[in-house]
Design brief:
It is elongated and about 60 Å long. The protein is mainly α. The C terminus is likely disordered. The protein is about 80% helix and about 0% strand.
């Protein structure tokens, strides 16, 4: 209501911010690969499990989860299934359901 009274359309700025965040994340993934993407999804997974605590209390769980996911992905990609597959394929299989759930949850809370 405050933004409307000041003549700002929050819906347009919401899409602008979502577009900018998507661009920044895509640049991160293009430079660092899907492994760097674990740094983006790990906090969301931890917040879903532990809850909305302060950021400083989530540093250790986020780092442990991110490193555990990367280690598990590396073991699977090196031949735990009997054949070798690229590490990015394994981490993307983990990332897709997480991103889908984040988008689904975020879309329901948007309005």
């Amino acid at each position: 209501e405050v933004s409307f009274s000041k003549g700002i359309n929050p819906r347009r700025y919401r899409f602008l911010v979502i577009g900018l965040v998507s661009a920044v994340v895509s640049i991160d993934v293009s430079i660092g690969g899907i492994i760097g993407f674990l740094g983006v999804i790990s906090p969301h997974i931890v917040r879903g499990i532990i809850g909305g605590r302060s950021t400083s209390s989530l540093v250790l769980p986020v780092s442990l989860l991110g490193s555990s996911i990367l280690l598990l992905s590396n073991v699977i990609s090196r031949g735990a299934l009997g054949f070798s597959i690229p590490l990015t394929a394994v981490t993307s299989l983990i990332a897709v359901p997480v991103i889908t759930s984040i988008l689904r949850r975020g879309g329901s809370n948007a309005d």
